[in-house]
Amino acid sequence: MRKTVKKDKNIRVFLVDDHPLVRQALRNALGHERGLEVCGEAEDREEALKAIALAAPDLAIVDLRLRSSDGLELVKDLRTQHPKVMSLVLSMQDETMTAERVVRAGARGYVSKQEAPAKIIEAVRKVLGGEIYWSEKAAAQVASKIASAAHSANGYGVEELSSREVQVFEQIGLGRNTHQIAESLHIDVSTVETYRARIKEKLGLTSGSELLQTAIRWSLNK
Length: 222
Fold this sequence. Notes:
The chain is α/β, with parallel strands linked by helices.
């Protein structure tokens, strides 16, 4: 099953950005969203790690360029030290170059600071819903990369998968959920679930989260 956040309580969001005005804008945008609450803020990596350990947020929104550290390293720290905390990267850097890096590091998505608040909220909602978020432009680039290397899967055991299982695995690597995969491949949702189970068994994976991360790493390392 995909990792999602329970909906019977407010979703706790932690902000990591070295610009107070950016944090204020995010705080204001999130504050108007039902079911979301900002539970803390930090300006750099060390401060964020200490505060996140106490605040126990569901999601951290992280800027790539922090006051005295690298946001990408913070994303990696969260993946290892606080695996239950999902991360969404917010940055001004070129998305076609950055989106892949941040997802490979463990983030659940990337959104440009140039986007309107509504788009950032959309990204937050999708990540909290268990999906990977990136723009259509970045997703198209990754899809092209996967397609051009569909038969070069050494090191992941993907060569053991059937053609249809590889198609499903590719779709998972793009962050698409079961319903989206079913629609894209014109098959039933139950059939997608069957393929997911077979893929996990063949690749020796034990959970939906492990399947998602493996599919993402495979797609980005081509």
